[in-house]
Amino acid sequence: MDPEVSLMLHCEPLQALGEHQTHIEISDRFNRQSFPEIEQHIEAVWSDRATQEPWLFNGAKFRLHSAMLSVMENGPMGEQAVQNKGDQLESGDTSSDRLTKDEQSCVLNLQLGLTCYKDYLGTNWSREAANLQSHGRNERADPQAFLAQPLGVGAVMATADGDVVLLRRSQKVAEAAGLLDIPGGHPEPKMVCPEVSEEAICVELLQGKERAVVSEIFSSVCAEISDEVNVPVSSLSKPLFMGIALNHTSAGRPSAEFYVRCTLTSEEVRDFYRRGGPEAHESTDILFLSRAKMLQLSDRSPLWSEMCPSAKGAVLLYQRVMPE
Predict the structure, then answer these.
(1) Which spans in the chain are helix H?
(2) With contact defined as beta carbons under 8 Å apart, do 48 and 224 qualify?
(3) β-strand 60-73 against 104-116: which pairing, if any?
(4) pTM for this prediction
(5) CB neighbours of 113 closer than 8 A, spacing ≥ 6?
(6) The CATH fold of domain 5-90+99-321
(7) What pLDDT digit, counting tens, does each position of 125-170 carry?
(8) Domain range summary for the chain, segments of one domain joined by +
């Protein structure tokens, strides 16, 4: 088992979920917990980084508090939760396994708060992350309670001829420099509240806009692909949710991983990539893996050591869910 990554939850094989099967609850109850010392630390970290990199700017992000897959039975049994927050997944029989597809449908439920990039740098990406997790475990029975936990998104993008896209990250990026990654980024609260500044975005402004938040989570996947790979959004299918992976090099930061089909061939995608896009500076090369090689990848594969945690998590989810 690779210590850099684990799975928070995943869909059943061949049952990746669409946007209409996703529901959220957003509340300030799901924001990061606080105490004076950590706020001082966050401010100090941000001040140091902003001095070294004056182009940095803070931005609001969605904070993942919990995620649950629920089986909705078409009968009097109602809803049966099959996976819950932060549990390490274990194989085993559940009563939902005995239901046929006609008798059940699956729903993803996310509990979201708000956080920001500054809080991420001062918590998940801080030298104090392990201490914060210990404090959260002791004081809140939740090791992530005092961490920013911004929700990321990533895409296993399959070309028309069946290859999966990987990008070689630039040596100039802050995290996972030079490693192989999948296209990805973050859904942006600002896209749901375009009329207000980043600093003014708050949970209250997002409440009542839950469907817009879900739409932003899913649409941000295609937007990130388009920005990083430079393919037209019109060439991409609607994303299908496979699961959530945790990056333990940044204290268990969560990333929702999706499967997206592209109508372009590998050579056509390569051509678009070489023309450069809005985020071309983030990567230096594009690689293509066949579906067979994706399914065979493991921590014993030579390529595995070249992959960043988000890509590893996406591979593990792809292998479990097999969305195509």
Answers:
(1) 36-52, 117-122, 129-140, 189-192, 203-206, 210-229, 266-275, 291-296, 309-321
(2) no
(3) antiparallel
(4) 0.91
(5) 26, 27, 28, 29, 30, 31, 32, 62, 63, 65, 203
(6) Nucleoside Triphosphate Pyrophosphohydrolase (3.90.79)
(7) 999 999 999 999 999 999 999 999 999 999 999 999 999 999 999 9
(8) 5-90+99-321
